[in-house]
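pinned: reference chain
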Amino acid sequence: MALASARHKRDDARKLLADGIDPGAHRKAAKAVRAGLAANTLEVIGREWYAKTAPTMADTTKEKLIRRLEVDVFPWLGDRPIGSIVAGDLIKVIERIEQRGAVDLAKRVHNAVGRIFRYAVARGLATRDPSRDIELKDILPPADVQHHASVTDPKEVGGLLRAIDGFTGAFSTRCALRLAALVFVRPGNLRHAEWTEIDFDKAEWRIPASKMKAKEQHIVPLSTQAIAILREIQPLTGSNRYVFASERAGGKPMSENTINAALRRLGYAKNEMTGHGFRSMASTLLHELGLPHMVIERQLAHGERNEVSAAYNFAEYLPERRKMMQQWADYLDKLKGGAEVIPLRGQAA
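pinned: its structure tokens
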């Protein structure tokens, strides 16, 4: 491009900005007009679908979504009539992403494009969704599953619990570590726990759907040991919104690095134990102890759906879960005290 031409385009962009117009969006719209693109191209339909769907998404989610489409889909298939695109065209897009090592992103793009096609089919702009003809397992390598480091040997768990009891850092951090072992929720749920979610009379913690990964309310039955920990920290943070309020930033929860940093301080390397590892610890030991799989899975909020009904019943197995959580707390006390491991098989049924 000649220098004079570049300066002219720069001046045009500045004028658009002064008028509150995004130069990038304007350029794309102008390109579509010049090319005489019909209203049923993948990019036109995709942006229409995005405009209607984005308001229901979190800001970070919708920003990532439109970037995926603009970087990995529209440059290759955007100007194609949506009804002319076949599975082979999508496979080339997916493989192009996979070739740079972004396997998970390739799966997300496949899902997003599929939603655009289903939107088009519902409006009579396409006859089928070609993404349904693609078996990702046939074209993508197996995911490299990264398991969260966790202590699962009963004797080592006892040592971990004793180390936590001896933690000399912040009192609220010590309480968070102790509670993490008892309730085995996701680290983000633990540090965002609010006092209004705790019901001492019912001995339960109800995590709102908005905070859960599956966007469904989750009930955490609280053992007598868990209640005792909450009572201990209540005088310190009870006047705050968060149970584990930040000591440095008033009104905010503790940092996402606090638990892991405390574990490092206790001598546990990141490949030995993590904040998320308390979930793996509970899942492994509860299964080894013979507790019912579905009861454990519901309490882990893995949300396995019944094939007959997709509805998630957050209170499913609740009586069994209450019993299991108290048994788990008692079992941890025994491990901490160095007692012999005794199976709990069938006791929560």
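why pinned: The chain has 16 helices and three strands. The first helix runs from residue 3 to 18.
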